């Protein structure tokens, strides 16, 4: 113990004389005295060799030595801070780092534009749950339990429960609004929908829709056509042709599909339009009287029209995108192309 005390006294003299000039010298001092393999820790390791009756006295000597070593280090702490700052000096001659600007997703861009167009026609936005019950998604919309039209939509059921599912269309929102009975109704229902389909360049297991509904007295198919004519002209311009084709939907009678001349080939024929010169953009029709009755609306007094638009289809036509999967891959090279678009 006497030998160790003599060593400590020598170390104290060395510490008292220590006057570092640089941060490196201070760091070397820290390593020598206060590091994990430093003298302070080594001396504390000698405690096991000291007789029990002297441990208290020896412990006091070690603690005083440790405080002295730490105090000296703290005394020159400013020197260490200056050394750290020296390696990070601000060079005012360097060019500023550019701020990366975010951009809206192309789906959001087309969705917002479509909403603004229909708002100018007096439509308001209605939203509903994405996890829906069978009544609002199917039965209220004229698709009975064994209706063959249910096979047209491959459905994701929740926990294999046929009463709960991921909505296959936003028509379920229309059913909820009609049940409230606040007539007349003039709404659009934007949102995400889900169908159990194989993912490819032209199909996905989830996509986005905007469906519209107008119910009032004396609503006709002519009202539907003029509404949709206005929409496509505001969305794509006037340099194209439009046609309606008879079709079938369980929700509407009569039903139709609306085509526009291909924006890519100008109607000449290409792979996108399958060399027909026409591209389908939406389905529509007059609301089936049975749906009005299911939702508590007098079908003899009120009529209405409905339509459904796939936002991905509009976006692909608008920006001439040929692969649907690009919308959900989050590839920044793809998304940056829409910077500045609103």
UniProtKB/TrEMBL annotation:
It is found in: Cytoplasm. Keywords: Aminoacyl-tRNA synthetase, ATP-binding, Cytoplasm, Ligase, Magnesium, Metal-binding, Nucleotide-binding, Protein biosynthesis. Its EC number is 6.1.1.20. This is Phenylalanine--tRNA ligase alpha subunit. Its cofactor is Mg(2+). Residues 116-337 form the Aminoacyl-transfer RNA synthetases class-II family profile domain. GO terms for biological process: phenylalanyl-tRNA aminoacylation. The keyword ATP-binding applies. It comes from Chitinophaga cymbidii. GO terms for molecular function: ATP binding; magnesium ion binding; phenylalanine-tRNA ligase activity; tRNA binding. Belongs to the class-II aminoacyl-tRNA synthetase family. Phe-tRNA synthetase alpha subunit type 1 subfamily. GO terms for cellular component: cytoplasm. It catalyses: tRNA(Phe) + L-phenylalanine + ATP = L-phenylalanyl-tRNA(Phe) + AMP + diphosphate + H(+). PROSITE patterns: AA_TRNA_LIGASE_II. Tetramer of two alpha and two beta subunits. Mg(2+) binds at residue 253. Binds 2 magnesium ions per tetramer. HAMAP family: Phe_tRNA_synth_alpha1.
